[in-house]
Amino acid sequence: MPLSPTQRPVPAEAPRPGRAKRRRVSWDLLRVGAVGLVLLFHGTFLVRQWHPEMAARPFVFPYQLGASLLLVISGYFAALSLRKGDVVRWWAGRMARMLPAFLVGVLGTSLFLRLFAPPGWYVPTLHDVLANLAMLWTWKPQVFPYVDAAHWTIPLQLLWFTAIFVLWRSRRMGGDTAVRALWIVLVVELALLPVRLNLQSETFRMLYDGFGLYRVHLFTAGIAVYLWSARRLRGPHASGLLGVCVFVHLCQTRHVSWTIGLAVGIVVVSVAALGPDWDRFVPDPLVRALRWTAGITYPVYLVHQSIGYVVMRRLQDVGVGPWGQLVGFTVVAIGFGWVLTVLVERPAHRAIMRGFDRLRPTPAVVRPVD
To answer: Is the Cβ–Cβ distance between 194 and 201 less than 8 Å?
Structure first.
């Protein structure tokens, strides 16, 4: 459409350092807390479910909660960042942030298992490594075993980011359309669940699980929280939508305790989104530690489980007790996560986005002439 005489195209303005918003402590705390819950679940409960020969843990956290909250937070920030600029660059940035670290994480974990896994433990073959690099486990879990089972969330996020990108590019997400789309997603997920549970169809199971319908309500909840914080949803409507997300989670997991934990977590995420920052409650030295740790949470998530289990078993073999094993599990996760962050995630993201920006001119935006 031609521009009016009072409008002219100007290049999209790059953010200025002085105008950048201060990073909120509350989100750093939530990210670190969610990944901490993942480590607790895997390091105190799931390890003995998979490896009964491991000594009893000093305490057990049997709630699959951390990964679910990470998906809620991911949905919130996907919606928040999408509103800030070019949708194509947004999608490219998400891929550039997640894929290189994931690919190196799979290769590094596979090599570690081949070198250090105890006798009788799973060691990935070349076939397994290639299947994990292609993220085929959700589609055919009976054929393609996980190199690291924590990776189940990665293809779901990539699929959902891509779905949002396609819808946004098609200009079908403006106005109230986004809210209607969230309701449609929840209704479809819930309506197809009985079919998934009762229909003996491998093709249907593969499609339902492969496209992540069994957890899409978590991403939906995060987007709903953002819309609420942006005043595109009123409180009662947002509460109803989030309540349905929690109900769908109960139907999917059939774990009351996990669902209660998720509901509490969504309330905390909503408080962080709607209210003031929590910096007044966190001392400055802890703020710096939280910021550093939050910056490496994704790589920590990628490399902690399979490698951590091997470390715990090797420590047990030399006489280290359960508490020492948990410390070793955590230290190795943070150490390897930091290495993956500084050597792969951040430099790969910078390099890919520099190349993207050189190949694709900055889109123009239309502004009124003064």
So the answer is: no
Instruction: Indicate the pTM of the whole model.
Output: 0.89
C-alpha torsion sign, points 167, 172, 175, 181: negative
Triad 312, 48, 57: Cα angle to 5°: 70
List the domain boundaries for the chain. Answer: 24-359
Burial class for 10, CB neighbours closer than 10 Å (0-12, 13-18, 19+) = exposed
First-to-last alpha carbon distance for the chain, in angstroms, is: 21
Phi and psi, residue 56, nearest 5° = -60, 140
Q: How far apart are CA 299 and CA 334, in angstroms?
A: 9
Q: What are the backbone angles phi and psi of residue 238, rounded to the nearest 5°? A: -65, -40
Phi/psi class of residue 347: alpha, beta or left (left: φ > 0; alpha: ψ in -120 to 50)? alpha
Q: Is the dihedral of CA 107, 111, 117, 122 positive or negative?
A: positive
The residues facing 7 across adjacent strands are 368
| Tens digit of each residue's pLDDT, the chain (370 residues) | 333 333 333 344 444 443 345 689 999 999 999 999 999 999 999 999 999 999 999 999 999 999 999 999 999 999 998 876 688 999 999 999 999 999 999 999 999 999 999 999 999 999 999 999 999 998 998 899 999 999 999 999 999 999 888 887 766 555 578 889 899 999 999 999 999 999 889 999 999 999 999 999 999 999 999 999 999 899 999 999 999 999 999 999 999 999 999 999 999 999 999 999 998 888 988 999 999 999 999 999 999 999 999 999 999 999 999 999 999 999 999 999 999 999 999 999 999 999 999 987 655 443 333 3
**Distance between CA atoms of 308 and 325, rounded to whole angstroms?**
9
